[in-house]
């Protein structure tokens, strides 16, 4: 049953942004590119939680990850006109 809820969340943009922490992460990224650790510091939630939420946001196409050595950087969220075609 848990897998079904996870699948529904990752395939639907609206379900993905229904989670408050995910909206907070998107808000944190509006100011510019950040590493996961910076998001953790900004939001005061655990690194595994931030990574989980970023994975969901990435799966629905709201954020993209870029590797910089061992760090994963997340630029600003995709603009609404880029996302609109996915909805």
Characterise this structure:
The chain is mainly α. 59% of the residues lie in helices and 10% in strands. It contains six helices and three strands; from the N terminus they run αααβααββα. The protein has helices spanning 2-11, 13-17, 20-29, 36-43, 47-59, 80-84, and strands spanning 34-35, 66-68, 71-74. A three-stranded antiparallel sheet has the order 1-3-2. The longest helix has 13 residues, at 47-59. The two termini are 25 Å apart.
Query: Tally of extended strands?
Result: 3
Query: What is the string of helix and strand elements?
Result: HHHEHHEEH
- What best-fitting shape do the alpha-carbon axes yield? globular
Specify Rg, calculated over alpha carbons.
13 Å
End-to-end distance, in Å? 25 Å
Q: Report on the biggest sheet.
A: 3 strands, antiparallel
Question: Oligomer, anyone?
Answer: single chain
The helix fraction, in percent, is: 55-70%
Question: Count of DSSP helices?
Answer: 6
Strand order of the main beta sheet, please?
A: 1-3-2
Nearest-integer average pLDDT? 81
Q: Which segments are poorly predicted (pLDDT under 50) over 5 or more consecutive residues? A: 1-5, 80-87
Strand content: 5-15%
Q: Which structural class fits the helix and strand makeup? A: mainly alpha
